[in-house]
Amino acid sequence: MTEVTAAPSVRDLIAASPRPPAPRVPLADRAGTVAPVAAPRHSRARAPQWLLPAGDLLAATAVVVCLQLLLTGIELAGLALTLAWPALLAGAGRYTYRAVPEPLSRRAGRVFRAGAVLGLCCWVAFPLAGSVAAPEVLAPTVLAMTGSSLGLCVLLPRQVRTRLVLAGSLDHVQQATTELTSAGRYDIVAACTPQPSSGLGSVPVHVGVSDAVTVANMHAADAVLMLPSDEMPAAVLRRLQWQAASTGVHVYVGTGLLDVTTTRMSVVQGAGMDLLHVRPAPTSGPRRFLKSAVERSVSLVAVVALLPLLMVLALVIRRDSPGPAIFRQTRVGCDGKPFTMYKFRTMVACAEDVRESLERDNEVDAVLFKLRSDPRVTAVGAWLRRYSVDELPQLWNVVRGDMALVGPRPALPAEVENYDFDPRRRLAVRPGLTGLWQVSGRSDLSWAESVRLDVRYVDNWSLALDLDILRRTVGAVLGQRGAY
């Protein structure tokens, strides 16, 4: 039998074409002389260092002026709090420059700590202040200052883009380049690898991991990211830190971990070594019980409140096309237990029978099946899918305990049969009505992207993450991205 091979695509031809070698920039000699800098260090795209403290001072002044119109006895106390507030924020590390910006939660935590210290100082100093200020004056002032600085965390970013030099083995450098460039706020200006390579496209590649700081100065980089490599023992890292401290370049060391939030990590010392402790993912315990109780209660109230709307939608679906209004399908839940999931029917009644004839037109990959223009979708069903209204009956699955409001995407049994090791991690918790997959693109995601988002959620779950996903779900539904 003659084997038939498909014609190569344009993408394959481009990938197979020879690439020109990456530019090699000569380094300075090993004695420590730094080659000429390609761009002045002040040209980096960062916000002025005085912008954030000036914003905090102006916001605190505005708070005191506004409260002075409403309260009495705030003049002296307001002046003292206005001057003390930026100093406390500086002590909390709010104004410290960081080449790799902190997440919003970490920046907000610094503001909260400064607010707690200011409130404690006011409580201790109140008996000494006498009639200068009363609690009804100090309390709203402290709360308003804290709120104003939290608002500035969002309005005034510390840095627009970060120029990075990557140093490590070629495989780790290539992976880090993909991850960092996809984030949209990092520019990879150079790389240092043990051997020469042309696999980074237009990024200059320098041979020698120990020259990373010198290369960073050549390219006016903000920071050096050190990645795992056989040529990077502890002594080399220590010397690079000394060299970086004298040139103003920040040094970051990659852990090699994937999708682990900082809340699960802590640095400890043992036997003269610095160790990174990674706490296990919280898949059970009091917080999980609280999540389940709250979600089931909220879902029950939502089902009762939305019952008239659900009945109207059911009648519209029945009149639009023959068949039941509710579509029932077996899905796999927590620990691999099957359950019946409920949705409003958005396709013709015989949709499952004709799916096999459409498999060749699948637009996602071999695991998921999605069509942007699925001929089985009804007119009413297209509208229901566009605004995710078809998923409202799943609130009853949440009430029953089969699903959660937030969790991984509910999987089909046929998908689970093809799972390897990593995707099975999604089954450690209950699937969700929404999740990271919902707010990150829904049907536009590939199978690998969907799995990674779900595993990231399982491993880094927290109540704050659930609240953030619920907030982002509103924008994802209204934006209609990936809804088909």
Main sheet characteristics:
5 strands, parallel
As for the number of domains, it is 3
Strand content: 5-15%
What structural category arises from helix and sheet content?
Answer: alpha/beta
Task: Supply the number of helical segments.
Answer: 15
SSE order, one letter for each helix or strand: HHHHHEHEEHEHEEEHEEHHEHEHHH
Distance between the termini: 41 Å
- Ranges with pLDDT <50 over ≥5 residues? 1-45
The value of Rg in angstroms is: 28 Å
GO cellular component, one term: membrane
Transmembrane segments: 50-70, 76-97, 109-126, 138-156, 297-317
Domain Bacterial sugar transferase: 291-478
Protein name: Sugar transferase
Structure overview:
- The chain has about 475 residues and is an alpha/beta fold.
- It has 3 domains: about 100 residues, no CATH class; about 100 residues, 3-Layer(aba) Sandwich (Rossmann fold); about 190 residues, no CATH class.
- Helices cover about 45% and strands about 10% of the residues.
- The protein has 15 helices and 11 strands.
- Strands 3-2-1-4-5 form a 5-stranded parallel sheet, with helices on both faces. Strands 6-7 form a two-stranded antiparallel sheet.
- β8 and β9 form a beta hairpin.
- α2 packs antiparallel against α3 and α9 runs antiparallel to α11.
- The longest helix is centred in the middle third of the chain and has 35 residues.
- The chain is globular, with a radius of gyration of 28 Å.
- This is Sugar transferase.
- It is a multi-pass membrane protein.
Architecture blueprint of SSEs:
Blueprint: H1 10-16, H2 51-68, H3 75-91, H4 104-129, H5 135-155, E1 162-167, H6 170-183, E2 186-193, E3 205-207, H7 212-218, E4 223-226, H8 234-247, E5 250-253, E6 265-270, E7 273-278, H9 286-320, E8 326-332, E9 338-344, H10 379-386, H11 394-400, E10 404-406, H12 413-417, E11 432-434, H13 436-439, H14 447-459, H15 463-479
Parallel strand pairs: 1-2, 1-4, 2-3, 4-5, 10-11
Antiparallel strand pairs: 6-7, 8-9
Helix pairs in contact: 2-3, 2-5, 3-4, 3-5, 4-5, 9-11
Pfam families: Bac_transf (PF02397)
Keywords: Membrane, Transferase, Transmembrane, Transmembrane helix
Transmembrane segments: 50-70, 76-97, 109-126, 138-156, 297-317
